[in-house]
């Protein structure tokens, strides 16, 4: 809706830069089990409104039983549905499948899916990371295979997949260069030459 509405009102096509590491599930509505566990430990999950946190703190302080607090918190949560994401919002591949044709720039970083870690694509990070180059390319292909929706701007015909990995402040120049080299070589296994089409990149892999 954002892309189509801004494009319509402005008369200029709106495109978005995607970052595969900016998705997570922290703001999904908590289950009863998550709330109760939080009341046990004193560490609150995402509850949305400040009122819900006030009830949470009051329960931890002994003013409510856990189940009284659970009922009150859930009642408050019902008043603020807009403050909670869906699980699919935390899936970068779902975003790419849905809107990848409007992402002329895609920032790639390795992440465990719980934070924007900006890890390099080293062998150690790739073992614990969720960003897989082939899955990114396949999600893009699926996006281009979908029917064009009315009201959307023209699809981008060029996508820049841009490495956005950060280094620790204590990292040496040697370590930084080695990590970037490993990250580039890893992606070059899937995009050996710039400018190839998705069909060509996926031809031998699907």
Polypeptide structure, described:
The protein is 45% helix and 5% strand. It contains nine helices and three strands; from the N terminus they run H-E-H-H-H-H-E-H-H-E-H-H. A three-stranded parallel β-sheet has the order 1-2-3, covered by helices on one side. Helix 2 crosses helix 4 (66-79), helix 3 runs antiparallel to helix 4 (66-79) and helix 5 runs parallel beside helix 7 (133-145). The chain starts with a helix and ends with a helix.
Write the SSE topology:
Elements: H1 2-10, E1 17-19, H2 32-41, H3 50-60, H4 66-79, H5 92-99, E2 105-108, H6 123-128, H7 133-145, E3 160-163, H8 173-188, H9 198-202
Parallel strand pairs: 1-2, 2-3
Nutshell version of this structure?
This protein is mostly helical.
Helix content: 40-55%
- Order of H and E elements: HEHHHHEHHEHH
Q: Can you tell me the overall shape?
A: globular
**Cα-based radius of gyration, to the nearest Å:** 21 Å
Question: SS-based structural class?
Answer: mainly alpha
Distance between the termini: 32 Å
Bin the strand percentage: 5-15%
Overall pLDDT metric: 95
Write out the strand line-up for the largest beta sheet, numbering strands in chain order: 1-2-3
Q: Number of helical runs?
A: 9
Say how many strands there are.
Answer: 3
Low-pLDDT runs of 5+ residues are none
